[in-house]
Amino acid sequence: MAGQMSGQPIFILREGSQRTRGRDAQSNNIMAAKAVAEAVRTTLGPKGMDKMLVDSLGDVVITNDGATILKEMDIEHPAAKMIVEVAKTQDDEVGDGTTSAAVVAGELLKKAEEMIEQDVHPTIIAAGYRMASKKAGEILKTLSKHVTCDNKEMLTKISDTAMTGKGAEASKEVLSKIAVDAITSIVDQDGGNKVEIENVKIEKKVGGRIDDSELIEGMILDKERVHANMPKKVEGAKIALLNTAIELKETEVDAEISITSPDQLQSFLDQEEAMLRNLVNSITESGANVVFCQKGIDDMAQHFLAKAGLFAVRRVKKSDMEKLVRSTGAKLVTNIEEMNADDLGQAELVEERKIGGDNMVFITGCVNPKSVSILLRGGTEHVIDNIERALEDALRVVAVAIEDEELVAGGGAPEVEVALRLNEYAATLSGREQLAVKAFAEALEIVPRTLAENAGLDPIDMLVELRSHHEKGIKTAGLNVYTGTVIDMWENGVVEPLRVKTQAINSAAEASVMILRIDDIIASTRAPPMPEGGMGGMGGGMPPMM
Q1: Which of 254, 312, 387, 415 is in Cβ range 3.0-4.6 Å of 447 for a Cys bridge?
Q2: Residue 221: which region, alpha, beta or left (left: phi > 0; alpha: psi -120 to 50)?
Q3: Which is it for the CA torsion 183, 186, 191, 196, positive or negative?
Q4: Which among 508, 522, 464, 523 is positioned nearest to 112, based on CA atoms?
Q5: What pLDDT, in 10s, does the model give residues 158-208?
Q6: C-alpha separations of 273 from 248, 251, 255, 256, 311 in Å
Q7: SS3 labels along 419-443
């Protein structure tokens, strides 16, 4: 990039920087974004395929979750990264619909490219897309139906829909029940159905079958008791949660102790022992019979705890301690000497079980637990990872449905209905934005079209039949990819939270508008790598010894 001044060029950018402007820049960006959308398109729907991703270290990820695929793909192009952001936002907000969001964004840009070639200005397209996105949100709101936290049957259907097409589909009955029970038990109804998804802890253990997975009304810790003589099982547990070590405190300042005779050494050791014994006595006198310590437990203290018949676990993670507070009702204790019975939590049973060759501590039967755990089992690590991703999606959509209490049908039904209504809305507009709104409507039909393609059906026939049903007023008519027919999705239990659709359409529209408005790309080169042998000009080390 240079200017001329009396015949002398003036360089503004660093040497080697690249600049692309105008139509070239736009088509470059659109092409990159379309390529990313195309990469995940085959994973959409119940008949979508999986992708195998291998990173630079050789680690393998097998998934058909759009957000995971785009995150694991090491994408360089800046415009393509924006499509990755769309999927990431969708995943953070609602957990499902990540592939749909990326595919819709790619299709919006494809339609925009066709309009740019017809000399429609990008800002007019952007304005039309914004109008269409706003109107689509209003139309979706009219299609939604109400659901409550108590309607477990409908919540299970939402969970089933989220898991369909993922690796967990074969065991979705078991996993959906776990997901719905987990979320409904942690709903905070005081502040209007708020769900903290972090209160569900997922522990994975290789071995067994997926159907062996279970929900624990309490906590699972991937730890074992500190001493072999401690009981393996404690019924009617009174639980102490310690935020401090059961060890001798060191002095704040450097100090030395002079010992001149063996008696003094012995009395010093006796004093240490007595101090530890007093700490353990403080715990037992409070009535506790189970101790979870965030820090260490001294070997001598372990012996005293085992002698007193207590069950103790050390070095429990801070996040797990916070979940234990919520599930058992205990208080975190920082000073052992001041501990009393009011600080203790309760659980019916604390026991150590062997799962897949490792010992784990189960805290079950908690009174009104606000934190629960899920133990996932599966044949291999890849299977469990895939199941975990599917289960997390299910947990998130059930949580969103409970928070918003709004549902729409799935199977491409809302997209076809919104496309029809947007076409009607476009006819009322007089400016060139009308073209953009029409293009937006056509772009939304990529979802049912892709569902049909991935199922090996004729996309045109399916789309025509869907439109015909919706024109007749059947607003919940969607595509059954197993039979290749159009059916009522609501009656067949294919439902999704409203937020999945609104978020996907909004974020896809915003990303495509942002990419469309770019007409100049200035890419700086990276700094050259350091020359070998240290900094330039310096010798390559010391001279050889003579």
Answers
A1: 415
A2: beta
A3: negative
A4: 508
A5: 888 888 877 777 788 888 889 898 888 888 777 677 788 888 888 888 888
A6: 9, 17, 20, 19, 20
A7: HHHHHHHHHCCCCCHHHHHHHHHHH
pTM of the full structure:
0.81
Buried b (16+ CB within 10 A) or exposed e, 159-185: bbbbbbbbbbeebbebbbebbbbbbbb
CA–CA distance, 309 with 305 (Å, rounded to integer): 6
Closest CA to 385 of 84, 173, 72, 89: 72
Q: Cα(367)–Cα(292) distance, rounded to whole angstroms?
A: 18
Q: What is the distance between the alpha carbons of residues 26 and 518, in angstroms, rounded to a whole number?
A: 7
- Residue 438 CA neighbour count, 13 Å, CB half: 12
Measure the CA dihedral 19/20/22/27, to 10°.
-160
* CB 416 within 8 Å of CB 445: yes
pLDDT for 437:
92
For residue 403, report the phi and psi dihedrals to the nearest 5 degrees: -70, -45
Q: How far apart are CA 35 and CA 485, in angstroms?
A: 30
- What does the block give as tokens for 34? 């379309």
Gap between the Cα atoms of 379 and 171, Å rounded: 13
pLDDT at res. 63:
85
Which residues have C-beta within 8 Å of that of residue 485, sequence separation ≥ 6? Answer: none
Task: Tell me the C-alpha to C-alpha distance, in Å, between residue 153 and each of 117, 147, 157, 159, 195.
Answer: 50, 10, 6, 10, 19
- Burial string for 93-116 (b: 16+ CB within 10 Å, else e) reads bbbbbbbbbbbbbbbbbbbbbebb
Greatest extent of the chain over all pairs of C-alpha atoms, in Å: 103
Residue type, 440: F
Residue 119 buriedness (CB in 10 A; 0-12 / 13-18 / 19+): exposed
The set of residues, in sequence order, having a beta carbon less than 8 Å from that of 322 and lying 6+ positions away, is none
Query: Can you read off the two tokens belonging to residue 137?
Result: 């949100």
**Helix 459-471 vs helix 413-427: crossing angle, to nearest 10:** 70
Length of the chain (residues): 546
Task: State phi, psi for 15 to the nearest 5 degrees.
Answer: -60, 135
Alpha carbons 437 and 268: distance in angstroms, whole number: 84
In one-letter notation, the amino acid at residue 232 is K
Gyration radius of the chain's alpha carbons: 31
* Rounded Cα–Cα distance for residues 122 and 436 (Å): 10
Task: Give the number of other Cβ atoms within 10 Å of residue 144's Cβ.
Answer: 19
Type of residue found at 470: H
Render pLDDT for 55-112 as a digit per residue (tens, 0 to 9). Answer: 888 888 888 888 888 888 888 888 888 888 888 888 888 888 888 999 999 999 999 9
Cα–Cα distance for residue pair 343/328, rounded to 1 Å: 11
Residues belonging to the active site:
65, 98-99, 393
As given in the structure block, the two tokens for residue 526 are: 């990276």
* Torsions phi, psi for 214 (to 5 deg): -145, 155
